[in-house]
Design a protein that fits this description.
The protein contains five helices and no strands. 0% of the residues are buried.
Length: 111
């Protein structure tokens, strides 16, 4: 059995053929028993609590805030032409620019 990696973008619909393949592999894997080794011990209740706390912190960092902005109509229509999930793409573009000081400076200098 191998590790399967797939990248799904915001608003992208699942590939039916790929989902069937993954389900078949999961059904096959379910037939085998779980074997714990020294390098992969069974998870303790304390570790599960810590994982839950870390997941909650991660989710808080990923939480998005709703804002209202004014956009030029042709800019908005370009994003809307991307289809469902265009607001997520717009947020990703804004974050990318904000995280790159050189691009952010260029954008500010154009104002």
């Amino acid at each position: 059995m191998a590790i399967i990696k797939s990248m799904v973008k915001v608003g992208q619909k699942p590939n039916v053929k790929e989902m069937k393949r993954i389900k078949a592999e999961l059904d096959e894997a379910a037939k085998y028993p779980i074997v714990y080794t020294n390098d992969c011990p069974e998870v303790t209740p304390e570790a599960l609590k810590e994982f839950a706390m870390l997941a909650a912190e991660r989710n808080m960092r990923k939480k998005r805030q709703t804002v209202t902005i004014r956009l030029v109509p042709d800019c908005l229509s370009k994003y809307k032409s991307l289809g469902k999930g265009y607001t997520g793409i717009m947020a990703d573009v804004l974050k990318y620019v904000a995280d790159n000081p050189k691009l952010l400076k260029e954008a500010c200098d154009q104002q």
